[in-house]
Amino acid sequence: MRTALLQLFRLGIVAAVAWLVRDVAVKQRSHGDAPVVVEEVRGFFPAAASLRPDDSERDGLFVLDREGRELGYVVRTQPRCQDIIGYCGVTDTLVALGPDWRILGLSVRSSDDTKDHVRDVVTDRRFLKKWNGLTWDQAADLDFRKAGVEGVSGATMTSMAIAHSVKARLKASRDEIAARPPFAPGWRDWGMLGTVALAAVMAFGPAAWRQRWNLPYQIFLIGYVGIISGDLLAQSLIAGWTRSGVPWQTASGLVLLLAAALLVPWATRRPFYCHHLCPHGAAQELIGRFRPRRLAITLRPDVARALGLLPGALLLLTLVTAMLALPLDLAGIEAFDAYLFRTAGIATLAVAGVGLVASAFVPQAYCRFGCPTGALLNFVRTRGSTDRFSTRDAAALGLMLFAAVLNWQYVPVLVWMKGLP
Questions:
Q1: What is the pLDDT of residue 414?
Q2: Secondary structure E strands in 18-174
Q3: How many CB atoms lie within 10 A of CB 70?
Q4: Are strands 61-64 and 103-111 parallel, antiparallel or unpaired?
Q5: Cβ-based neighbours of 274, under 8 Å, separated by 6 or more
Q6: CB-CB contact of 221 with 278 (8 Å)
Q7: Percent of the chain as helix, strand, coil, to the nearest 5
Q8: What is the DSSP string of 317-336?
Q9: Residue 276, SS3?
Q10: What's the CA gap between 102 and 71, in Å, rounded?
Q11: In angstroms, rounded to a whole number, what is the distance separating the alpha carbons of residues 228 and 108?
Q12: Cis peptide before 79 (omega within 30 of 0)
């Protein structure tokens, strides 16, 4: 029972961190760089008490009362419509919709346009009411001429930029929802299905058979999985999926790979991905197979412990990058994109090269001391009845609490980041 609870705890930690990252990503898309606050929407919804981000392609906010009942919905035109400029700047407009998804009204939140022009638009009695009563689709397809939407006298460019922004914002979200791709597995997906099945045979098949075919299988992983298909797990992929959603319709093979990499070691104690699916692990094993014995180095225990902290530090960096949407290419902190050498960045190639050279002296050097993805998969792996709550579990709990604080304090952190030089 203790072991089962510990395994549920570990899987729960991973799921909780993923949810926290996803939730803050939804907030970033719906709030943008200027969070909408409850006070702004009370002109349309007097009973409004809170706002809940919508994780669909609409990227807006549900308006809730004190009991959590939905009163309506609001969506802002920025930052999606930054290329629609009025006289001398963009305008952020809030669109409020009732529970029947008909527009209740528009309000100007902020504008970089001329103050006098913006004031003329806001004080015009008719312009901002032209959308009232329209559904989302009707507003997205609105013909300005037929609807009588004309520029405000003296502020024509500013007012028409607002009109085009509202239409473009609603149309973009509507079209994104309609354009969801169907489930259509391609050759890479079927190839990955076959590879995962073959990996299962290598992991759980007869020992004599596995030993006989181990070398050809390692070459296959490097050649097919690494160079030909390029479908490898990495922090960049996991962070991107956590923030944006899992593309099971268009990358079902990779989704299967990630599921197998997490669940098989969690259920069976076998390091499934790292030992049987990772091309970089296979490359290091090949180097170790043909390495002269005299090159082997035994690290001092304190050095090994210090180097063993690096994967955890990289996981922390990945978490902060994913939570705050920092402009850091996470592919550069791991070796895996190096197998797509035609498009790989210098940082990725350097990490891969250093890792392979190091493995000529220290067995599986990169796996042990440089791989955050391996550390994540190793964290969820069960270790049997002797398993105990350890330092890594405490560290994982700390990461989850850190993510919870960043999620909870998203708006203050955003305001603080905007104030940085």
A1: 59
A2: 50-53, 61-64, 70-76, 91-97, 103-111
A3: 11
A4: unpaired
A5: 281, 367, 374, 377, 378
A6: yes
A7: 60, 10, 30
A8: HHHHHHHHT-S--GGGGSSG
A9: helix
A10: 12
A11: 51
A12: yes
First to last CA, the chain: 53
DSSP 3-state of 152: strand
Where would I find the beta strands (DSSP E) of 160-212? none
pTM of the entire predicted model: 0.75
Which residue carries 């405000």 as its tokens?
Answer: 152
Q: Is the pLDDT of residue 187 over 90?
A: no
Q: How far apart are CA 46 and CA 72, in angstroms?
A: 11
Between strands 70-76 and 103-111, the pairing is unpaired
Query: What is residue 47's three-state secondary structure?
Result: coil
Residues 6+ apart with CB under 8 A from 220: none
Tokens, residue 229: 């298909």
Q: Which two three-digit tokens encode residue 306?
A: 């210090």
Helix (H, G, I), strand (E, B) or coil at 135: strand
Q: Pull the structure tokens for residue 205.
A: 């098949």
Q: Are 361 and 286 in contact (CB under 8 A)?
A: no
175 touches 135 (CB < 8 A)? no
Question: Which residues 6+ apart lie within 8 Å of 249 measured at CB?
Answer: 180, 181, 182, 183, 184
Q: What is the pLDDT of residues 88-123, one digit of tens each?
A: 888 999 999 999 999 999 999 888 888 888 888 888
Report how far residue 42's alpha carbon sits from residue 65's, in angstroms, rounded to the nearest whole number.
Answer: 11
Residue whose pair of structure tokens reads 């030993």 in the numeric block:
211
Q: Which residue reads 């994109």 in tokens?
A: 337
Rounded CA separation 63/99 (Å): 10
Q: Are 48 and 63 in contact (CB under 8 A)?
A: yes
Phi-psi region of 85 (alpha: psi -120 to 50; beta: other; left: phi over 0): beta
Query: What does the alpha-carbon distance between residue 402 and residue 312 come to, in Å, rounded to a whole number?
Result: 14
The domain locations on the chain are 37-178, 187-418
Tens of pLDDT, residues 31-67:
666 788 899 999 999 999 999 988 888 888 999 999 9
The tally of CA atoms less than 13 A away on the side-chain side of residue 406 is 24
Q: Answer whether 120's CB lies under 8 Å from 127's CB.
A: no
Say if residues 152 and 162 touch (Cβ distance below 8 Å): no
| Model confidence band, residue 179 (pLDDT cutoffs 50, 70, 90) | low
